Amino acid sequence: MSKKLYTNATEACKDITTGSSIMSGGFGLCGIAENCINALTKLDINNLTIISNNIGNSGRGLVKILIQNKISKAYCSYVGGNPDLEKQMLDKSIDVELVPQGTFSERIRAAGLGIRAFYTPTGHGTLIAEGKEVKNFDRPCILETALHADFAIIKAQKGDPYGNLWFKETARNFSPLMAMAAKTTIVEVEELVELGEIPPEDIHLPGIFVQRIFQGENYKNDIEFLKLEDEK
Amino acid sequence: MSWSKEEMAKKVVTLFTPDSSVNLGIGLPTLVAEHIPKDLDIMIHSENGVLGVKGRPNKEDVSPTLINAGKETISINKGASFFDSSLSFGMIRGGHIDYCVLGGMEVDTEKSLANWMIPGKKVTGMGGAMDLVNGSKSVIIMMTHFSKSGASKLLKQCTLPLTGLGVVDLVVTDHGVFKPNGSKFEIIELANEVKKEDLKDLKDLEIYI
After folding, report:
1. ipTM field
2. Which chain positions lie within coiled-coil regions (chain A) (predicted)?
3. Which of B64, B83, B86 is facing A223, going by the closest CB pair?
4. Residues 90-149 of B with CB under 8 A from A
């Protein structure tokens, strides 16, 4: 069990190589694997495929490795508010596949659960459907395939040495799905706890999906848009 | 003479039935939340993984891990729940969300919506919009009636890449409420002193009945 325990991000990420595909959890900057992303900035690698809802924002999160020109292909659902990504999309230095967010999460979930493909009405009659098989059920649906990756880098609030995880508030988002879909899932936690400390009923992701776990440090937990009741 | 943003938001609220679930898109639709009366018992869903959004937090309650799909800090009501993106989109795609309110660039008489890209100019991505328009029980588009250049955003047929084909139930603009029926927009209501002639841009009025 303790074989899963790593000391830090550098050690846990050291076999990520040029050409690797990496799923990265988080919605905007909420719940991103800050330590792992920093470790990627220090690795001499490129030609990465990144699968993440947003590729960071305003110089933060995955933008750090984007501006190092380490990403050649990205799957995401939303690129608004990310000028660095827009620039690379326009000069074609990155190939971005925009995926509807529900299809994005379902393709990742499918990969983790052994489902090869599924039909969905989402995207029918749009650019997304181009080149995809269409089948009529109650209405026309398009065939979408599972999305796998070599690695997933995710962050949880709490985790134990087996890799059982507990996420805080809306920081869960894509992370449990990505953990299931990647060959090697690397988890960083704010609190590394003893086995049994997270009540079994409260475990959001069972540790069977986790290969590596370490205690993270120096969390910024940036807020993108601070909105206050008193300010209205 | 046309409706203000607040009046549009209030108009959208009148379309909700009590005890329903609502997803509000980024931009103009976020205003709707502020006008929902408590006694309607509406559950607001945000696709990043929360059901039961209340509004903005007080300074002492701000949490960086408690946000909406616009990445803004939020507070939650009693009875709220958190879940992963797959379950969140299961609520949407499985037909469990009663209303979604989205912004729009174009809506046409054939009930189609365009709101995610302008070829060669602007790509924001569709986010959850393509799932919302295909999965929600009722799709309401909230937008200004005319673009900044004065062109009608209600059209016979959309010119921009579609978000959804044949999916829109109702359009609430600053000029009124309109229902696309497949070949025309039925005028459900006109704002204050707006007349049918005011809906005209460079073209004619043949798309309205």
Report:
1. 0.95
2. none
3. B64
4. 92-93, 112, 123-131, 134-135
